[in-house]
Amino acid sequence: MGATHVTVTIRNPAEPHRTWEGLFLVDTGATDCLAPRKHLEAIGLAPRIQRVYGLADGSEIRMDVTVAEVEFMGDLTGVAIVMGDDDAEPLLGVTALESVGIEVDPVNQTLKRMPYVRLRGLRPRA
Measured between alpha carbons, how far is 71 from 22 in angstroms, rounded to an integer? Predict the structure, then answer.
């Protein structure tokens, strides 16, 4: 599949007026989002935890992670965001995509909204 990009706004949930907007690569191989640390810190976000991530070459790396609101394609969700190097390409991971009901169309290399967000564990009301 070719590269698919989408404009994303990252928002500090404690101070919603503090935002950063960037062009993110949609990465279906990534669970979490990633954004340059300098932009996250500029809107008041700080590391909350560290998490070990597996990279494409099989190596592992421990990275700082924060929590933020992510807005794209007219929808909003809260997600973990890896605090990448200052020159890192921003990535939009599958957790953010699935949480708002967006999937990747690999044929057209576009994002499309599903008719609903999946919630399989809930039983219908009688």
Answer: 11
C-alpha to C-alpha distance for 9 and 16, rounded to whole angstroms: 11
5-113 carries CATH number 2.40.70.10: yes
**Nearest alpha-carbon partner for 100 in 63, 65, 125, 75:** 75
pLDDT bucket at 104, cuts 50 / 70 / 90: confident
Beta strand pairing call for 49-54 and 33-36: unpaired
Which segments of the chain are extended strands (E)?
A: 5-12, 15-26, 33-36, 49-54, 60-72, 75-84, 91-92, 102-105, 110-113
pTM of the model: 0.86
Please write the tens of the pLDDT for every residue from 40-91. Answer: 999 999 999 999 999 889 999 999 999 999 999 999 999 999 999 999 999 9
**Per-residue tokens: 108:** 């057209």
Domain segments of the chain: what residues?
5-113
